[in-house]
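Fold this sequence, please.
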Amino acid sequence: MAKFKIVIFILLVAGIAYTAGVQTADYFAPASSRVEGVYNKESGKPEGVDFSLFWEAWKAIQEKHIKQGELDTQTLVYGAIRGLVGALDDPHSTFFTPEDTKRFYEDISGSFEGVGIEISIRKGVLTVISPLKGTPADQAGIRAGDKIIKIDETLTNDLTLDEAVNLIRGPGGTTVTLTVFREISDSSLDIPIVRDTIIVPVLEWEMKEPGIVYLQIFHFAEKTEDNLRIAIPQILNAGSEKIILDLRNNPGGLLDVSVAVAGFFLEEDSLVVSERFADGREGHELRSGHGGALKDLPMVVLVNGGTASAAEILAEALRVNRGVQLVGEKTFGKGSVQELYSLDSSSLKLTVAEWLTPKGESINDNGLEPDIVVELTEEDFEEERDPQLDRA
């Protein structure tokens, strides 16, 4: 009987020890192993990263949140990646869901539904880089440099760039009201804009007077290089002797297209731009090609606060390589380079480098100072005068 009691005692102790061991093992197991319904939890994980805090938060949300039955796992994953990218404090780095990725490719192809403005976050404020010519935003009176305070009833101070774009975008025929602050008049304005299908023009040209061609490039999109190549014989056959190149309110676009366009105006193999990477390494020089069909025509370039990114690259390359004068106002100052990484059906637009002028200078957040400063006043806008073009 005593032996039987001892055996039972041993079994009980063993049972308690086993239970305690299971509970202890569960407590000290990796946090990711205690999350259900998620796969590939460790795939691609870098060395030396303790991700347990994330999984503890994930598990708490799944088990305790009042809407736990409505939670979509993929939406949570996308939100986590957005938070990761947002922690970079870089308005030009963005995570795109599959829907956002589709919209991005529509943008660079030159057709989408919305109001037709390029925006960025500048010193913490949602700012208009430029309205695209002929779009609802342009026709409603939105201007480069306008600070967007509200989108309908939503204040913009805590919005990411992607969130702001999603609020402004919408089906054609619907209305969005932008409340903007305009420094030139020190006033706030409510500007209702009816959304429409936006067909972004890439360039236009005309003869302003005998021998002087006025060429306006609106955007460096996929079609810009080909459209300019088609236009050049027409420009030369029209008896052009001088060029006014208008890059005002050109928000930039594709870097390689800007470099290709520069090749029509420069000697072949001229340095257009170089890049400085995260490790401080400089290099990857981008040089002109095409043989410079327009390189011998004297020219001036018009710029303003809406001249940004790839447009600034072209303007400064022409100034440094050919001594071309810039006329107008200080440019926007976007001197960073982004690359698009495919993540299955979603994507990541990530700042990977800073671009440098042919002199090796960065203009990020500084912009280009024009050689001849000509400002547009409120009265000029109202009277539809263009003293910058007149000066050019």
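The domain at 201-337+352-391 is CATH 3.90.226.10 (2-enoyl-CoA Hydratase; Chain A, domain 1). The chain has eleven helices and 19 strands.
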